[in-house]
Amino acid sequence: MATGVLAGTPLTANEALEVLQADDAEILNLLAAAFLVRRHFFGRRVQLYFLLNAKSGLCPEDCGYCSQSKVSTADIPQYNLLTREKLLAGAQAAAKRKAKTYCLVISARSPSEKEIRTLEQIVPEIKQRYQLGICASLGLLTPEHARRLKACGVNRINHNLNTSSQYYAEICTTHGYQDRLNTLLASRDAGLELCSGGIIGMGESPQDVVDMALALRDLGVDSIPVNFYNPIPGTPLSQFDGEKNEIANETHSEGGKSADTENFRLTPNYCLKVLAMVRLTNPDREIRIAGGRELHLRSLQALGLYAANSLFVGDYLTTKGQLPEADYAMIGDLGFEIVAD
Ligand code: SF4
User: Fold this and answer.
1) 192 within some domain
2) What is the DSSP annotation of 96-129?
3) Does 57 contact ligand 1 (Cβ within 6 A)?
4) Nearest atom of ligand 1 to the alpha carbon of 139
């Protein structure tokens, strides 16, 4: 499989599905294939990112997985866009934690004029002080938003497809998959790099995961964050009892149903298969193990880096990550190295 991919033959949809449906006993073979491809394009390097939840909660959208949605009752902090001092402190923390990119995220359908203006002022200052790349995740963007963000020095826009086009209506009704695509296309037209990935474990089928990975390949996004759904109590999707994902899981682990979590029954082995499949379908793209890493990969976290080449260091938007020292130790134990410049 890896030989064909490295020779330039794209993985087919059926082959990608076979990766997700492989017996758990095949996991090391799948990771070995993914690692051949990862090593070819990225060696043993690991790129670190640092997230700041720059505006939290009170979002008018109804994304069922999100603790910051208006329909969520999750107990999370709620605040408007952070002050200049706090945004600068976040940049300092990013640099201190060896991240090369500072990801500024706001909860919103779209950024307000005031929020865009704040970014126009702060982004040049952050870049001048800390030499960090800036990725902005601001919700739906117009072409004008995208042009202004590019002009002030934002390098990259994050806007996740999250799932397949056919499953999208199951996770959100206030905007659609096409709205997300339009934001990505407007951002690319403005000259911004694209970061777009998904969330695994929201009740979707393995076919949905494959369709999303192939859509990201077709878009040619630069960076792919793979999140594993962390069902925070109070979010609508957390009220599933795991039934949907249990069914999805049974289709991919006939030979060895490895330890289920009580949460949506994502298993560490399934998460690894997803990472391997995303690497094999998007061979030369940056792939980041994102939210839910600690919860769902558990003791197999390190193996994920044989497929992925990037991590968030520090906390996620509304949940805690493991300590940076644990990430550095894991990377060191693998014999991998953090990208230094
Ligand atoms: S638009 Fe973003 S912040 Fe708002 S509910 Fe959806 S994912 Fe959450």
Assistant:
1) yes
2) HTT-SEEEEEE-SSS--HHHHHHHHHHHHHHHHH
3) no
4) 1
DSSP 162: B
- Return the CATH number at 181: 3.20.20.70
| pLDDT tens digits for range 30-61 | 999 999 999 999 999 999 999 999 999 989 99
Number of domains in the chain: 1
How many angstroms does the Cα of residue 64 sit away from the middle of ligand 1?
Answer: 9
Least confident of 157-161, 179-183, 208-212, 318-322: 318-322
Interhelix angle for 206-219 vs 268-281, to 10°? 30
Classify residue 2: in a domain, yes or no: no
Question: Which residues lie below 8 Å from residue 144, measured CB to CB, with a gap of 6+?
Answer: none
Its domain, for residue 195, covers: 10-338
- Answer whether residue 91 is part of any domain: yes
pLDDT confidence of 261, banded at 50, 70, 90? very low
Q: Where are the beta strands (DSSP E) in the chain?
A: 45-55, 101-106, 133-137, 156-158, 193-195, 198-200, 223-228, 286-289, 310-312, 337-338
Q: Which atom of ligand 1 lies nearest, measured to the CA of 59?
A: 4
Strand partners, 133: 101
* pLDDT above 80: residue 239: no
CA of 106, closest atom in ligand 1: 3
Atom of ligand 1 nearest to the CA of 107: 3
Q: Is 69 a pocket residue for ligand 1 (Cβ < 6 Å)?
A: yes
pLDDT in tens, 86-124: 999 999 999 999 999 999 999 999 999 999 999 999 999
Give strand pairing partners of 56.
79
- The answer to the question of residue 185 being in a domain is yes
Q: Whose CA is nearest to atom 2 of ligand 1?
A: 107
The pTM of the whole model exceeds 0.90: yes
